[in-house]
Design brief:
Radius of gyration: 19 Å
Number of helices: 11
Distance between the termini: 23 Å
Number of domains: 1
Structural class: mainly alpha
Low-confidence stretches: 1-11, 82-98, 203-223, 271-281
Strand content: under 5%
Largest sheet: none
Shape: globular
Order of helices and strands: HHHHHHHHHHH
Length: about 280
């Protein structure tokens, strides 16, 4: 996977390593069609066909039922990640060849898998074998999903703009590459740097807790249970809102936020201050 920023530096390296390793983990890449057929297997053949072709929302699947499915996905991934996190918190639980603890890597793998699945529920194209199968664009979208889940302000604006049909219709006259590079790209960079800082702090704290192996394992699993579900709910709320309750005024406000980030980054060579309320585990 290519580096989203087009080059690597010390500020971006940690997140780049984690994303590159996570993408290589078995089961991380979700096949959209197979996932949707499994999720909606109890529906009629006609409904399943429509869902695969157009997405659940365009196929008029219930908003409330979509939300239930989305929450169930994050619950299942949380329980899986918590069990793996306990095992990784025991001696030897580090990813071979890099300085990223194995439980941090598997946490991101599970979170990103769940994010893909929820995105497919809300109508996203296949990340790996479809219209957006471009390493840089996929990486950027995954970073924005992480930003939303960890509460990075501004990330929600970017996800709403790239996800909502309202935004796509309003911006259809703007070339896709111009939208990505000129409006979305600066926010992706800002979120990436914030997550890298938070991740480094979290990894250091976890390294200390693992000095006592059993306690470290329990702490790892407990933190996963506490953090992943609310993280998932943040992403679900943003995607749900962008497809069912997004207004012209909100689109204008989101674009203003993104444009301000771009102008600030261009003028100063730095990203504007941002806020992360989540915790990298």
């Amino acid at each position: 996977m290519s580096d989203l920023m087009g080059h690597s530096n010390s500020n971006d390296e940690m997140l780049a390593i984690v994303l590159n390793k996570a993408v290589q983990m078995p089961g991380m890449k979700v096949d959209r069609e197979a996932f949707l057929r499994k999720q909606f297997k109890s529906e009629s053949h006609e409904m399943i066909t429509a869902i695969v072709e157009k997405g659940p929302i365009e196929a008029n699947f219930s908003r409330d039922k979509l939300r239930i499915k989305a929450r169930r996905i994050f619950l299942d991934r949380t329980l899986t990640s918590a069990g793996l996190s306990f095992a990784a918190g025991l001696p030897g639980g580090f990813a071979a060849g890099i300085t990223i603890p194995a439980d941090t890597l598997q946490f991101f793998t599970m979170a990103l898998r769940a994010a893909q699945e929820v995105a497919y529920l809300y109508g996203e194209d296949d990340f790996w074998n479809g219209e957006i199968s471009d390493d840089e664009q996929v990486t950027g979208q995954l970073i924005l999903y992480c930003g939303v889940m960890f509460g990075a302000s501004g990330a929600s604006s970017a996800v709403r703009v790239v996800s909502s049909q309202l935004a796509k219709a309003a911006l259809k006259q703007l070339p896709q590459r111009a939208l990505t590079k000129g409006v979305i790209y600066p926010m992706v960079k800002s979120v990436a740097k914030l997550l890298t800082v938070q991740m480094t702090k979290g990894i250091f704290a976890k390294g200390v807790s693992k000095a006592i192996p059993v306690v470290g394992g329990i702490v790892s699993g407990s933190i996963t249970l506490v953090t992943m579900r609310p993280m998932g709910l943040r992403l679900i709320n943003v995607l749900d809102h962008s497809h069912f309750a997004y207004s012209d005024e909100q689109l204008e406000n989101d674009l203003s936020i993104l444009n301000n980030v771009g102008r600030s980054s261009s003028a100063s060579g730095r990203d504007i201050p941002d806020v992360v309320v989540g915790e990298i585990v």
